[in-house]
Specification:
By secondary structure, the protein is of the alpha+beta class. The protein has two domains: 1-41, no CATH class; 43-134, 2-Layer Sandwich (GMP Synthetase, Chain A, domain 3), CATH 3.30.300.20. The protein contains three helices and six strands. The strands form two sheets. A three-stranded antiparallel sheet has the order 1-2-3, with no helix packed on it. This is Osmotically inducible protein OsmC. It comes from Neisseria iguanae.
């Protein structure tokens, strides 16, 4: 197994994360409801957001197979925490897609979203809700 990233704790509940292949860097901060400043994604925000990014990536792969353009597609992500033990209890992803997509494409893309590796890697205790909006 090779390493994919480094994480450097910089103090005050802040981390800098670097993707080794690209050099891309993002930061995390603890959320305000857990002693942090909320100045960046929290680690649990990244988990929830990773679910949406993974689903959109898999949908993009299927869209390429279908000859469908998803360039204007976006998602909004919500998460609900549980206190004991502190964990992500629910992630809701609202996908906004073109209303011009035909029924077959919609069915295939929606099914593809649920097959993403992040979705399959999360605990079955974590509720995942995907809502698809065609605008």
């Amino acid at each position: 197994m090779s390493h994919i990233s480094t994480v450097r704790y910089t103090g005050n509940l802040h981390n800098d994360l670097t993707h080794l292949q690209s050099g891309n860097t993002i930061s995390t901060d603890a959320p305000t409801d857990n002693n942090g400043k909320g100045g960046a994604f929290s680690p649990t925000d990244l988990l929830a957001t990773s679910l949406a990014a993974c689903a959109l990536t898999i949908m993009g792969m299927k869209a390429d197979d279908l000859g469908v353009d998803l360039a204007s597609v976006h998602a909004e992500v919500g998460k609900e925490m549980e206190a004991n033990p502190r964990r992500v209890a629910k992630v809701t992803v609202d996908f906004y897609l073109s209303g011009n997509l035909d029924g077959r494409s919609r069915t295939i893309l929606e099914a593809a979203a649920h097959t993403c590796p992040v979705a399959k890697s999360l605990s079955e205790d974590l509720v995942q809700v995907f809502n698809f909006h065609y605008v």
